[in-house]
Amino acid sequence: MLSKHAEMRMRQRGFHKLDVELVLALGLPENAPGGATKYRLSGKRVREVIRSLNRIQKGAVAVVVAGQIDTLYKHYDL
């Protein structure tokens, strides 16, 4: 959930909701003043993620059993 301030800044700075989701999912958490947590997604990390996405761009599946990854495979029909 975004605050009104965050929604305004997101529009002003040209971010999309998926951008925010990616920063939260892939960024490194850091303590910030006032008990807040900020998530930092560096250019290096972005390049690493792009390389991974290129590897799986035709489709990938992870099968989870009882909270543990049981297997991984490529799925080209996705």
Q: Give the overall silhouette.
A: extended
Q: Percent of residues in helical segments?
A: 40-55%
Instruction: Using the CA coordinates, give the radius of gyration.
Output: 16 Å
Strand count, sense and closure of the main sheet? Answer: 2 strands, antiparallel
**Number of helical runs?**
3
Strand order of the largest sheet: 1-2
Strand content: 25-35%
Extended strand count: 4
Q: Which spans of ≥5 residues are poorly predicted at pLDDT below 50?
A: none
The secondary-structure element order is HHEEHEE
Distance between the termini: 29 Å
List the helices and strands and how they pair.
Elements (H helix, E strand, L loop, with lengths): L3 H9 L4 H10 L1 E5 L3 E5 L2 H13 L4 E6 L2 E7 L4
Antiparallel strand pairs: 1-2, 3-4
Q: Mind explaining what this structure looks like?
A:
By secondary structure, the protein is of the alpha+beta class. Helix content is 41%, strand content 29%. The protein is built from three helices and four strands, in the order ααββαββ. The strands form two sheets. It has a two-stranded antiparallel sheet. Strand 1 and strand 2 form a beta hairpin.
Summarize the entry for a quick read:
The protein is built from 3 helices and 4 strands; from the N terminus they run ααββαββ.
